Amino acid sequence: MIKDLLHSAPSLLNFGIFFGLAVLLLFVVLGFVTYGILSERKIMGFMQMRVGPNQIGGKWGLLQTVADVLKLLIKEDTIPKKADKPLYILAPVIAFAPAFMVLATLPFTDAFQFADIGVGLLYYMAISGISTIGIVTAGWASNNKYSLIGGMRAAAQMISYEIPLVMSLVGIVLLTGSLNLNDIVAAQEKVWFIFLQPIAFIVFFIASVAELNRVPFDLPEAESELVAGYHVEYSGFRWAFFMLSEYVYMFAMATLTTVLFLGGWNSIPFLDFIPAAIWFGLKFSAVFYVLVWIRVTFPRIRADQLMEFGWKVLLPVALANIFLTALIKELINLF
Amino acid sequence: MSEKEDLAKQKAAAAAKAKAAALAGKQAKEEAAEKPEGEMDIAKQKAAAAAKAKAAAMARKQAKEEAAEKPEGEMDIAKQKAAAAAKAKAAAMARKQAKEEAAEKPEGEMDIAKQKAAAAAKAKAAAMAGKQAKEEAAEKPEGEMDIAKQKAAAAAKAKAAAMARKQAKVEAAEKPEGEMDAAKQKADAAAKAKAAAMARKQAKEEAAEKPEGEMDTAKQKAVAAAKAKAAAVAKAKAAAAKNRTAVKESKEVNTPSELSPNQSKLDQIVSAIESHVGQGALLEHYINRLSKDVPTLVANPDTYFSIAKFLRYDEQLNFSYLSELHGTDFESHMEIYVHLHSFKMNQSVALKVKLDRDSPVIPSLVPLWSGANWPECEAYDLLGINFYEHPDLKRILLGEDWKGYPLRKDYQPYDVEV
Amino acid sequence: MLRTEEMLLNVGPQHPSTHGVFRLVIKIDGEIIKEATPVIGYLHRGTEKLAENLQYTQIIPYTDRLDYLAAMTNNYVLCHAVETMMGVEIPERAEYLRVIAMELGRVASHLVWWGTYLLDIGATSPFLYAFREREMIVNLLTELSGARLTFNYMRVGGVKWDAPEDWIEKVAEFVPYMREQLAGYHELVTGNEIFVNRVKGVGIYTKEEALQYSLSGANLRCTGVKWDLRKNEPYSIYDRFTFDVPTREEGDAFSRYHCRMEEIEESLKIIEQAVEQFPEGPVLAKVPKIIKVPKGEAFVRIESPRGEIGCYIASEGKKEPYRLKFRRPSFYNLQILPKLLEGENMANLITILGAIDIVLGEVDG
Fold first, then answer.
1. What distance in Å separates the CA atoms of residue B123 and residue C42, rounded to the nearest whole number?
2. Residue of B149, B197, A148, B321 whose CA lies nearest to C233
3. Does some domain include residue B182?
4. What is its main location (chain C) (predicted)?
5. C178-203 confidence digits (pLDDT tens)
6. Chain B interface, best mutation among C23, C211, C241, by max B CB count within 10 A
7. What ipTM is given for this predicted complex?
């Protein structure tokens, strides 16, 4: 249906339909974020031998996040006197918008996708880079030393890790011959890329955790050092936007990992009677769980070690992986 | 030389005791000294115990007069004060004999619940003791107590023992030791045995002596046996369960009156200071007994720094660690107290200096110990003592705008609103 | 015109990793610290001044508020000073109760340190694990004293109350449990590459510097100085127990970490032995109702979890001390911080500060 709409002549109706769909997706995503946060807290509680939220919304705390969001909505919106006001207001928007935009190309199942564009992978990488600007802007505009340091750290870190992230994916592109995410999923019908590209997977996974600013790479907001990093001066719903963009990115990154390495919605042989959506959900949840698991387990890496690791370890490994993939591919083609 | 008829079930205990007594007797011979041993069997009467303690005390007085002896009356039991009285009498008689012969200890021991016969036997024993004493001009009565459940009695004994010890010092003559067997503390017993052993050795050296009191618990032969054993292997066992009281006792013995174990170290430090810094560098020096015998040096304000420097860098002394520095306002003067430690000598020393209260100025120790930095700031902050050549003297706790020095005794809080 | 300039940054007094109201003014060039100036005194309550108008027993609650993570040791140092001056003999059972309480306090204190240190470094879970175990200790001490942190349990001449029934058994059960958990801690953290990278070789000082700056406790032992007052100047009944004094040679944050973790094990050993030997008897010696200390002065020092805690009393023979002074280990240990921070990375600030293990109540007195 969407394809038809994309090919039809532009009209107010089309705009309305797209707008409606986007709002719908936004709510789906917000729903996910709501329960993503809850499940993260529950998993953390489980791993740390405590119960987690269990008061609001029954014994599972199902409405806990809803209540939290509500609280954020009615919180006083403070803007520091000496902040750069326009930038201060703009920053959360810049940070959040790309997080939402990247969702457009992600194929959740063969039927559920918004835009099947040829360079989906590239689109994702390019758009997600914009968020960095939002974070740096927030750090700068707050006129707070901690947030400035946090913002600078974030910029350095995200730029450094974007490179190995993209480089690790070149191997997949080489194998598939396409940047289209649907093609990549299709190429994994028999063997998932996690088995064909294990090195790439490891590099990608580490770099993606760094891109998400999550433990052990949560330096930009390093609570114990920088108090809260770039969003230290934000409160209420402006702060919620940063939080939101973080979790939407987590959602997107878990989806991308599933699509690129775990075969997307493809089923395990002989189990294809289970619907594609469920397969996708299972894989997605596994990735999400591992992300939370990492957060619970590791301490934070140090800024200089982070840079060193990104440039001196991940990047060379990613490059070597490209070389290796190309070599093997040529050799296979040769015989 | 004590004889016991202890109850039907404690022959083993009696034997052990007899042995101990015999040994004591030998030592006594050599040293012309003596060990009374009190042992009591107390079933349930604290009153009896008290009476005994009294008797012992009296006996001790007499002993002083005669240059040596302690009869100990001991009593027993269950309901027979009469028996006790008889014993006391016997003891008194024995004492008289002792006087005549310049030395002896009758021993009354009694046993239990219904045996006057035993009492008689004891009287006999006392008599015999008297005879031996004559021969040797010395003797050891042994009191033994049986304490079933009375810690109070035990305490009384300990006290008596302590008193006896003091007397012994005065007369260069003896240390009774009270030992208790609380039904469940073998460890204690072992430790005590050690203490007793140590005490005995010391006693030899000092021509002195230790009576040994031993107690038996009403029904534990096993314990008695264990004790005998414990005495034999006292050292090994005692290591495992060192008894604090034991340690203390031996300490007392070690340091009769003035001499502190740290005296030699103090002398060493003082002589080193006087030869290197100069005669009269120290105002005074003494051992501070209240403070775990720490050698204390009181410096002149002029020599304070040079003494500190000497203590810090001297090869032998090498007080490399500054443990504490603070000031005190003594109203007549200010005082800095510095507690130093030398890992080389394994010894602490307190260095004090008295300052003029109106203008307390003193060189800073920071060049010697960086650790003196904040403590000196604190003394400056709270007492107004000026440390010159301090790298960064500031009001570290209260802030620069605070009025007055709170730890001075004449401090009046300054409050703008009042 | 492009130029760089140094930035002055106030870390604290409200900052999640200064463990209280500690303020550090740092001059940074990028993320490199050029100069660090500690500012303390935010929690100064004038304990020493207050004590001059209080009777000895009344001072004990004030000591609870110095090092509030190991208040038993503080209770003890005051009582010990008074007892030393008066020459009071402490009943056996009281000594054992004191030692068990103090060692439990030491374990609890090190657990808090371990948890918060890891939290500073960015790991959230160890904190919760540590507090779970600490909670058990706190419960034990609550049963003993009636308070969770400010115990006010010791008295001149012994302790306030005897242990409740079954308490000793509970302590005995806790020891093997804690050992098991400790093994888990090591599995989770000690070998972790990220953690090791963050603490190894950070905040190094030599043995000479440690002595020069009057450091004590694990901060001193991490440089190879085998110095523990429980062993070297035995007080109470510590000479009855077999335990080791863990030392390391490196003098970095990681060695301090090791020293403290091993100290937990040694404390457990002591508790185990004390529980085995636990005697019957009274828990309070006969001391006068109104305690009067003989005229004179005394300074005693004992080993607290943070180092050497001392108590100086100058007495005029009255019921209040003429002057009371605590040698507070955190106060002395913190002095070396500016030196350690110079030229360090910002991220190491927290690692170094945390490894010193300060309690602000103690720093400020």
1. 77
2. B321
3. no
4. membrane
5. 999 999 888 888 888 888 888 888 88
6. C211
7. 0.89
